[in-house]
Amino acid sequence: MKDLNLVPTFLWFLLLFPLHKAVANGVTPEETKQLRDEVREMFYHAFDGYMEHAFPLDELRPLSCEGEDTLGGYALTLIDSLDTLALLGDRERFTASVEWIGKNLQFDINKTVSIFETTIRVLGGLLSAHLIASDYATGMRIPSYDNELLDLAEDLARRLLPAFDTPTGIPFGSVNLKYGVDEHESKITSTAGGGTLTLEFGVLSRLTNDPIFEQVTKNAVRGLWARRSKLNLVGAHINVFTGEWTQKDAGIGTSIDSFYEYLLKAYLLFGDEEYLFIFQEAYSAAMHYLYNDPWYVEVNMDSAAIVWPLFNSLQAFWPGLQVLAGDIDPAIRTHTAFFSVWKRYGFTPEGFNLATLSVQHGQKSYPLRPELIESTYWLYKATRNPRYLDAGRDIVASLQYGARCPCGYCHISDVEFHKREDHMESFFLAETVKYLWLLFDLAVGPDNLVENGPYKYIFSTEGHLLPATPQISLLQEHCSYFGAYCNRDSLKEEPIASDKSADSQEINGSRVSEGWVRTRFPLDSSSFKASPVSGLIKGLCPGLTHAQKYGISYLASVDTAHEDNSAKQKDITVQSQAIVVVSDQISNQSLSGDGNDNNVKESTEREPESDPSQS
């Protein structure tokens, strides 16, 4: 994309490097320890405030020291906080919380809830805590625990399943936990809402040996991707019955953000190449059409015409995702730009207009979001550059000075005047303080489950810890698309047809040695068996389309009346690169990070916000 030329160059300079900004003094080792302990105290100030004044209601009102039910009326903040308690090593409160939830929580209630929020906050919180409480290797095993949280998670997920009964496979946005989908339920949902369910549902399938949960969420992703534009962009909102895009603004923020996130993370956690391929194409398109170094804009998904030169706070997760993808340089530049907005106001507003260099009207709030902190943590983990500790120190100071309230931490309703609002989202304890604490603990010399534990962890979009255990991460390579090449000797059943290769031949840009055969499997993944890990994830050749590889047909947009003529005249493609990843043949080995940090997984690598209550 060409430069925007939205504002004079010197104004960009002033935004990125304000004249009043002094050079920060580096954070000393002793100060790092103090900051880590201060963040721990921040967590307990908010957690104790919730338990004393709001529990068992969903969330805390930190100014008035009261509680409120905001999602389903089932102790939401406690569920969302479970793995943070475990991460901090608080065995007593973790055990007491798990036991209370196991004895008292139930989902057979007449409540209509958000599929997205319930999945990432409640289902994810239950699964993460179950995996910690049930495993001696985590050091937090609860002797009396008998899979109560897993049973609750399965019960909850089954109550969400009716939402997936749509012609497109893309779920409704809401479902009643007792009666299913209401006949008057809206048929419009967001891309993130339909595409950010794969981790939690996939983990549940592996823990219960029931494939239905993983199948429905994967079908939802396929349903969204099949309806992408010819530029490989997806819109913000879609009709789950007709598949028509009702909002065609493409971006990396509101309503779309975690769709990208879960494509890569589902591959990292489960080893499913289909997610990697979709991520490759989606990421390439985003960097080509949305990236205006160092910012990101929103464009029409069909024509790529800029429709919204806006930084919104949900975009701030992107540099962290780029770290996981191994694309560090643009991540550094974008984080610098995003953090300059924080420095200007003390917080990031929901929207910052890049044309006027001012807070977007109606988007002045900061609801304690974690995304910028998350990216700060990942960039420090990848680079060990002390500038990210400086950033973390500034963020702690802002939260302590501007958001701390008598019983917790308050939303900031106006970042320009630091007005407070009497509400604290559960994700403040699930993510915001978690990433801050991990940042400083990593700098001190990590002693926690994530950095030193028995597994590599993937963070869900709610910051929940999902371990790459042998039971969860695939140990076998699946031939799940036409054109896959599998070792003939390792197949458990004969392929329907095969074309034996010569001694050695080059196919689709990948070297295929003797003993490899081309197999034709049915599209239904349940109809074939996995072959053992071959030690090679075959190249995904750019010569085949996604439809050819996975049997997903390209569906033209239903609304073509206003299609941009210039887009019709161009044959624009986004080039995909072939990927060849060599894997260890150790039975429980999954893709890992570089040798300098074994806990960062490596590849070539929220709901959407209509209101600030969604993370």
From TrEMBL:
Which residue intervals are annotated with compositional bias (Basic and acidic residues) in the record? Answer: 599-609
Supply the name of the protein. Answer: alpha-1,2-Mannosidase
* Pfam families recorded: Glyco_hydro_47 (PF01532)
Species of origin reads Gossypium anomalum
Q: Where in the cell is it found?
A: Endoplasmic reticulum
Query: Which residues of this protein are catalytic?
Result: E117, D257, E350, E371
Query: What InterPro entries does UniProt report for this protein, alphabetically?
Result: 6hp_glycosidase-like_sf, EDEM1/2/3, Glyco_hydro_47, Seven-hairpin_glycosidases
Q: Which UniProt keywords apply?
A: Calcium, Endoplasmic reticulum, Glycoprotein, Glycosidase, Hydrolase, Metal-binding, Signal
Q: Where does the record place the region Disordered? A: 585-615
Residues bound to Ca(2+) are T461
- The UniProt record lists the keyword ATP-binding: no
